[in-house]
Design goal:
The chain has 6 helices and no strands. By secondary structure, the chain is mainly alpha-helical. It has 2 domains: 88 residues, no CATH class; 71 residues, no CATH class. Helix 5 packs antiparallel against helix 6.
Length: 161
């Protein structure tokens, strides 16, 4: 289950970004969210009904707590943020890595100080490499216009050809 859970997360995350980038430019963000969450609601209801055999559905819903409401708000912000990022011209290959590394940097102190996570030298090195990768992918190259890298872009996305 350990690897299956992360595999599902990776597959769903890739699909998420492909679908998010594929939303029509003339589609209303609010209408897109309504459709997205209608589909998610149906899928979630099917999961709830199929997994609640041992416990009544009302109890399952009551026991979720405040974090589920906060998660709902966070997800709407996440959806709008990526939709707007892609509409603003962020490359599919850059928006998610850039955001995810920034999130990892923010979550690091939260995980340690709020949730008691540990930070080993190996984990710290991995995070440092992720930050370095983002800097390399988004940095402003100093090569001349006659050779080497493309001219610097005005935003943190990779330049278009």
């Amino acid at each position: 289950m350990y690897y299956a859970a992360i595999a599902l997360t990776i597959v769903a995350n890739v699909a998420y970004h492909v679908f998010q980038k594929s939303i029509r430019a003339d589609a209303s963000p609010a209408a897109s969210l309504v459709i997205t969450y209608a589909v998610a609601l149906v899928c979630s209801l099917v999961l709830l009904v199929s997994s609640s055999a041992a416990r009544p559905i009302g109890n399952a819903l009551w026991q979720t707590g405040w974090a589920s409401y906060g998660l709902g708000l966070a997800i709407v912000g996440l959806e709008l943020g990526f939709l707007w990022a892609y509409r603003a011209g962020w490359d599919l290959a850059m928006a998610a890595p850039y955001a995810n590394v920034a999130v990892a940097v923010v979550l690091l102190p939260l995980g340690i100080f709020v949730f008691g996570d540990s930070l080993t030298p190996r984990k710290f090195a991995g995070l440092a490499l992720a930050v370095a990768a983002i800097l390399l992918m988004t940095g402003r190259p100093e090569a001349s216009k006659t050779g080497g890298d493309a001219a610097p872009s005005s935003s943190p996305q990779s330049p278009s050809p």
